[in-house]
Amino acid sequence: MADVGRAVRRAALLAGACTAGHEVGVHGFVHRPLPLRGPASTRSDLTTAAELIADVTGTWPRFFRPPYGVLSGPALLATHHLGLTPVLWGAWGREWDRGATGDSVLQNLLRGLEGGVTVLLHDSDGVSPSLAAPALAALPLLLDECAGRGLRVGPVGEHGLLAP
User: Fold this and answer.
1) For every residue of 92-159, which 3-state class applies, written as one string?
2) What value does the mean pLDDT take over residues 40-58?
3) pLDDT at 102
4) Is the pTM higher than 0.85?
5) pLDDT category, 156, cuts 50, 70, 90?
6) Residue 24 covered by a domain
7) CATH number at residue 56
8) What's the domain range around 44?
9) What is the DSSP letter of 84?
10) Structural domain ending residue among the three candidates 64, 86, 108
11) Which residues pair with 2 in a beta bridge?
């Protein structure tokens, strides 16, 4: 899911990712917890993000991952209005933990790894790009583990989620 602030600054990269077949979803225009926001603010934020993604990529986004994994009533109403499907995760790497390594990220992921689960990894938090290192180090280990378990890796759109 795209951080839209970075998407504005790096529109060509976002468009290229979409052209290469990657899914681009809404995470919000600003990264604030939804329960602290009212209905109008939530709807405006998600609408702005979805429209910007559509303008840059030429494709309306299908999915919405809420900041911090916390939904709210207004967010559910806004996603329904915008035709977005909320997506949460079942396995997360916690690559932002101090001292995280590829192995520690993998161990965190294994706690929730099963068929059909969405895996959450970050390439950075927008402040410390070094978060990418443990996540990237975990990826080949994760892919080997999935192969060993007979799990197929694919995009969220192949999880069988239905649009609202």
Assistant:
1) ECCCCCCCCCHHHHHHHHHCCCCCCCCEECCCCCCCCHHHHHHHHHHHHHHHHHHHHHCCCCCCHHHC
2) 93
3) 95
4) no
5) confident
6) yes
7) 3.20.20.370
8) 4-86
9) P
10) 86
11) 26
